[in-house]
Amino acid sequence: MHRRSSAESSRRRGTEDAFARFRCWIGNFLSDDERVFVVKRSWVCEKLGRIDSGSNDRIADIQRDAKLDVLPQFTHQRSSVYSALCSFRKPWPKRGGLARPCRGSAHGLTAMQPVEQHDEVEMLSLMLLIRRFEERASQQYQAQRIGGFCHLYIGQEAVVTGAVAAVRDDDYIITAYRDHAHALAWGTSANACMAELFGKATGCSRGLGGSMHFFDKQHHMYGGHAIVAAHVPLGVGLAFAIKYRGEDRVTLCFFGDGAINQGAFHEALNLAALYKLPIVFICENNLFAMGTSVKRSTSLKQIVDRAEGYDIPGEIVDGMNFREVRDKISEVVDSIRKEPHPAFLEARTYRYRGHSMSDPASYRTKDELEKYRLDDPITRLRAQLTREGKLTNEQFDQLDKRAKETVMAAVKFAEESPDPPLEKLYDYTYADGAKA
Amino acid sequence: MREITYRQALNEALAEELERDPNVFLMGEEVAEYQGAYKVSSGLLQRFGPKRIIDTPISENGFAGLGIGAAMVGLRPIIEFMTFSFSLVAFDQVVNNAPNMFTMSGGQFNIPITFRGPNGPAHQLGATHSHATENFYASVPGLKVCTPATPRDAKGLLKTAVRDNNPVLVLEAELLYSSKGMVEPPDEELLIPLGKAEVKREGSDVSVICYAQSVPLALKVAEQLEEEDISAEIVDLRSIKPLDEKAIYDSVAKTHRVVIVEQDHPFCGVGAEVCYRIQKNIFDELDAPIIRVSQEDVPMPYNERLEHAVLPNAEKLTAAVKQVCYA
Hints:
The complex is a heterodimer of chains A (436) and B (327). Chain A has 436 residues and is of the alpha/beta class. Chain A has two domains: 6-85, no CATH class; 115-416, Rossmann fold. Helix content of chain A is 44%, strand content 8%. Chain B is built from twelve helices and 14 strands. Chain B has helices spanning 6-20, 44-48, 60-72, 91-97, 101-104, 134-138, 151-163, 214-227, 245-255, 270-281, 304-310, 314-324, and strands at residues 2-5, 24-28, 53-55, 76-80, 114-119, 144-146, 168-173, 180-183, 198-201, 206-210, 232-236, 239-241, 258-261, 291-293. In chain B, helix 1 (6-20) packs parallel to helix 7, helix 3 (60-72) packs parallel to helix 4 (91-97) and helix 9 (245-255) packs across helix 10. Chains A and B meet through strand 2, helix 9 and helix 10 of A and helix 3, helix 4 and helix 5 of B.
């Protein structure tokens, strides 16, 4: 009789236990029409050779071997197989009930409305403000009134707006160089943002930072950082300070899909997980790191799987959907406030413009862009609110008009503001004003 | 005053600042349970607990950045690099994030952080572990750099660095950790300001400008030169940036001859800057061209004899002094 070695049978038992746990768990995430073949990655390599070359016979073999009695049906779609294979991440903390938006727009763009409604309408108007601000920035850049680099956020508005709706006024934000929207969302005035682009003394960084370096201490906006992923450890430091002081704030750390292959990113995730720090890493996956697509930059099939490597709960969210972003972040922020831990959210989004103003984005097709434009985050939230009777067309037009006026006023403010004084050139190198 | 080692002096400075300010914490590789790779943080974990004395994985970029982030919201991190040769892994954080933040934010965020650890060639550690980083870092606006050479300076400068509202690098001298010197008793507050040099030995014939590991070297050479009737004044810079120009000029105005002995490389080294400033500002006081003694311009060899040849040493310094004195 063939006898298995005890090591092998114990390994086998371990695998079966893991399968059972995984099967139970993944069931929570699947809707009725989703069909996923549940099997561990190493098994696929062992049994099928390649994950997309499975035949029904072989699958039946695995089913028998692994004693998977409630095996969901196999689908030949590679992507769904893969997403199941990779889902060994820590589960995202779920919370029952509605999301609890906490932080309103600081711009007073809407007249006060009943509490339940004003949040979403106000957030829609914040999205409009961001959109109109970026359009105007683009125009002013072309008119050569804005220098250096200028990276626009158009198309991605639902991500930062969803985030701000899920946190409190005293929560921290830190982000990369595509930062205009993050400052606006956290409460920096359009005037201070536009003046910064113009390099004026009234800018949010006194005209010393520029487009990529927006800061606003008053609103807990910690930059505006232009070296890809170099700010992710800083975000971990903000979270460290929160835990050190025993506070229940949360740090939201934004970065793009290009950041996830930098060493600083990996070191930061490991430290956050090791020290259990209150931070949500939010990857704004707009599919391109400058002109290099995720497919060409990243060995993983989906970015969120970076979280798995650090035992951090991870989730994917539709970054074009305000409500989905808000609810996902809201869930995890609640959990973090109770007991500090890191979390990782991949927000799938799209920027309509090139990487920066000088990029015509010839690495992608018009069709692709058009596809995303049809899924516009502003149009989507507007439609949701209109359908639910919370917003009329007239009201929307009014909001848009107000956003445009705010931005036009900001341009005027920036134009009329003075340059930073030359005689103060040395005043911002050392905090005590000392000259070295 | 009592005699303690350089290592003990640093340890006292850390303990006193941790005691004084709850915002101060110490973070780095092996600082807690191992008690410090060079035992500088010995006993601190037991005294202040794991919340404030924090071991890290080997992730210099990560934990240097963590410290900067924590400093943005008012904590006062002390980040230990096991050696400053490893700080090069975190160069982006130390050079691009820490010193730029105050300017980039228009003065909203100062970074009160201390980066400390051994710096400079030690003994037969080879090229990767022998970097003297003072000239790299001193060239960056927004950073302050000090290089204590005695236990007293080590304690006083480190304490000042922790209280400074800017990023300060305390470049300790690995070869001096066990050296001894007189230091004020613990109940007497010892703060030595950044940017203040100290004349370690008075002299009249030549000014030997030095810092860190080159200070004991200069003192030893000065004693030997005394027997040959050459009186050398030893000026210990203590801080590279800010630089105490007045102390340099005062000494040069007295002796009219200068040798600079530094532990870094000659090209764009600290001595080049000091030399430039002397000739620009007090050219008329000079009776001879200034000579610099530094490392040779090669990566550090492992072989002991070659290493000695690369480093500034007594023979080279003696010869340089005699040359400027036309002796």
